[in-house]
Structures are given as structure tokens and as C-alpha cells.
Design a protein that fits this description.
Length: about 375
């Protein structure tokens, strides 16, 4: 591993926080028991698991019994889409045009089961168009799925308003809050949604843990059948250490949210004033955004090329829809915003945390300027 590289890709994953590791270690290194076992080890594991459930529930303003632990955001989104629609008669599923593939793909799979899948567009700032949503909603809409904050642009979505509209048409609403959770206030009750996805590794917790929070009135079918864990909604021995780490990370994220918000916002402002000087186009800049995320393009420079060049000189950033695949297709989020494919191919995402420093941003901007000049020079030779 290159130790000199500055990590500017925190929307893809984050380092495990030391306090999280500390909380997890006893559950990894000592005999812990299976939470379904009746002996003392099993009972201790069950007790720790239920405490973690309460802690996660408190972070999002719900009751512990609403939290179903999963293997991460991907499973929770699949569970929401497939599990909720399984108990409804086939009708219309509405998703926004900027969803993560772990929402779009299960949604597309429902077309095989007679569901009509329709997309709600976004405006030029990457924010869901509520007027379009209202037009698309009807008594035939069974479920709406719309993310709370976009992983690429950071644009925060009007999910509470959408939930009101959905309710008025008798539809259920699921939100993917994976990127929002831990970065901005996320209260499921205030949002008024019926199901919500969160994930641990975006907030300094371990990879491979997440949760779907489900309103008790929602009849949801399990994806995984077996020993009946998680109230029969998600069979499989619970990842006790991972869940404890997730709860610890969530609590730490709540405690530090305000100060982190200020720190990362200052770093992003520094970054974006430098980007403006370099002639970058910053996407969704007029939208209310996550404070840590900046998505931009330098016209006529390929995002993939820039990301590779920056990696070589010590800066880890992402291009396009980075956490989904190694596809070189332009970001579907940018295309949904009406950005031209050419400009969208230039997209680079910087996502910060409070572990980043102002010095790193200064160095990053200098490196970016150098690489842009170099690549423009190569383009000129090739032309
Ligand atoms: C918005 C969004 N939803 C879902 C996921 C998937 O979460 P996980 O990596 O926990 O499966 C991601 C991951 O990048 C994401 O950004």
C-alpha cells in the first residue's frame, strides 16, 4: 500500500475508526457465542447485539425493533425493493434517475414480475423534480425509492416532500440514506419514509454491515430464509462484531457531526475556489449538498485519465460512478442532470473527511494543475 497517498475518496469507503476497532476486538478475539445460543456466551452476544440495535435506532429516531441488520447497503436496498414489492400486487414502482445500481438493478428485475418501473427525473442541479414525481404518482404506484443524498454530486434530495406526495397516493417510500447517514441529520420519523437503508463502512465502521430500517406497518418479505434471525426477516448468524462496530461508528458520527460539517465544508470551499481558478465545471454546486463532496470536470480532459494520473502522484480520488463498477460509461447521474456525455466523461469526485487537511487540498490543487497542463499538452500533440 502507498502510504504517501492522500485519501480523498471517503464516499466510497472510510477507514475503521480506532474506537470502533477497540469496541469490536473482544468480539473478534474471544469466545463470543452465537446470539441464538442459550448459554452464557450466546446470551452475552444477544445482549450486545440488542444494545447495538438500540444505539443505531436512537441515531435515526426509530424504535430498536424497526432495525434489521444486513450485510451492507446493497443488501438493504435489494431487501427493500424486492421484499416490499413481493407483498404488493404488481403495480408501479417509481425510482429517481440518480439511484445507485443496487436500487436500479433490483428495480429493473421487477419488470419480469409484471411491475411497471418508471423514473423520476432531476433538475440541472441533480435534485429530484417534485412536479414530475407528482405527475408520475397515481393510485397504481406501490412503491417509490429515492435516495437521501447522492453519492456522486452530494446533492440532498427532497425526500420528506416526496414521502408526503407518495402517502397522498397510498404509495410506500423507501430511501437509500447510505451517503447521508453520519454526514447530515437523518431522522426517519421526521422524513416520514417507510423504509430506509444505512451502511457502516461509509462512517468509519467495518465493511459488510448495514441495516434496513422498516416501519412496523410495512409487510416486507425476507430475501434470506433460514434460521429466522432478525425476527425472521434476515436469516443468517448475525455479524456481532461488525454490528457492534457499526453502532459505535454511528454514535461517534453523531457526536462529531457538527464539527466535522464545519471542517469538511471549509476544506471543500478551499478546494472549489481552486477548482474555479482552474476552469473546472462543478456539478450540482447550486444544490444543497453534503458538505464533504465535490464533483467536477475539467473540459476536454477524461476523468478516468485524470484519476489515474492523480493516483500516480499521490492523490486518491474517484471518477464518475466510482463505487459501482469499472465502467467507462459517463455517469448516469450527470446525464440525468442534462450534462453532455463529453463533459460527463470528465467527471472527478473528491469526497473529504475531517482526517483531510488544508495542506492536502493545497497540494492536491497544485498536482491537479500540473496534470491538467500535462494532459492538455498531450491532447494538443495528438490533435
Ligand atoms: C448511495 C449508495 N447506496 C448504496 C451503496 C452500497 O452500500 P454497501 O457498500 O454497504 O453495499 C453505496 C455504496 O457506495 C452508495 O453510495
Amino acid at each position: 500500500m502507498t502510504t504517501q497517498t492522500a485519501f480523498l475518496d471517503h464516499n466510497s469507503t472510510t477507514a475503521l475508526k480506532p474506537q470502533v476497532l477497540e469496541a469490536m476486538l473482544p468480539w473478534l478475539t474471544q469466545p463470543t457465542g452465537n446470539p441464538t445460543s442459550r448459554h452464557v456466551f450466546g446470551r452475552n452476544a444477544r445482549e450486545a447485539l440488542e444494545l447495538a440495535r438500540k444505539q443505531i435506532a436512537a441515531c435515526v429516531g426509530v424504535q430498536a425493533s424497526q432495525v434489521v441488520f444486513t450485510s451492507g447497503g446493497t443488501e438493504a436496498n435489494n431487501f427493500a425493493i424486492k421484499g416490499i414489492t413481493a407483498n404488493l400486487s404488481p403495480s408501479q414502482l417509481l425510482i429517481s434517475g440518480i439511484e445507485h445500481p443496487c436500487v436500479t438493478r433490483p428495480a429493473q428485475s421487477l419488470a419480469w414480475h409484471d411491475w411497471k418501473v418508471a423514473t423520476i427525473g432531476v433538475d440541472s442541479q441533480g435534485v429530484i423534480d417534485l412536479a414530475q414525481a407528482e405527475q408520475a404518482l397515481s393510485a397504481r404506484t406501490g412503491l417509490v425509492s429515492a435516495m437521501l443524498a447522492n453519492n456522486e454530486t452530494g446533492a440532498i434530495q427532497p425526500v420528506a416532500e416526496l414521502a408526503q406526495l407518495a402517502k397522498a397516493h397510498g404509495a410506500l417510500l423507501h430511501t437509500d440514506a447510505v451517503q447521508a447517514f453520519g454526514k447530515i441529520d437523518v431522522n426517519m420519523s421526521a422524513l416520514g419514509v417507510h423504509a430506509m437503508t444505512i451502511s457502516s463502512h461509509k462512517i468509519g465502521g467495518p465493511i459488510g454491515v448495514g441495516a434496513l430500517i422498516v416501519d412496523k406497518r410495512v409487510d416486507i418479505a425476507p430475501l434470506l430464509h433460514g434460521g429466522g434471525q432478525e425476527r425472521g426477516l434476515r436469516s443468517g448468524t448475525e455479524n456481532v462484531a461488525g454490528i457492534i462496530g457499526f453502532a459505535q461508528a454511528a454514535q461517534l458520527a453523531m457526536q462529531s457531526m457538527a464539527s466535522r460539517h464545519t471542517t469538511v465544508k471549509q476544506l471543500r470551499d478551499q478546494l472549489e475556489s481552486g477548482l474555479n481558478r482552474l476552469g473546472a465545471v462543478i456539478f450540482a454546486q447550486q444544490a444543497e449538498r453534503l458538505p464533504n463532496t465535490s464533483f467536477f470536470a475539467i473540459p476536454n480532459i477524461e476523468g478516468e485519465t485524470l484519476v489515474t494520473a492523480l493516483d500516480k502522484v499521490g492523490f486518491a480520488v474517484a471518477s464518475g460512478s466510482a463505487c459501482s463498477s469499472d465502467s467507462t460509461e459517463p455517469s448516469h447521474v450527470l446525464l440525468a442532470m442534462g450534462i453532455t456525455p463529453d463533459l460527463a466523461r470528465g467527471a472527478v469526485r473528491v469526497s473529504l473527511s475531517d482526517s483531510n487537511t488544508s495542506e492536502e487540498i493545497t497540494q492536491f490543487l497544485a498536482a491537479l494543475q500540473q496534470q491538467v497542463q500535462r494532459l492538455k499538452g498531450l491532447n494538443a500533440v495528438a490533435a
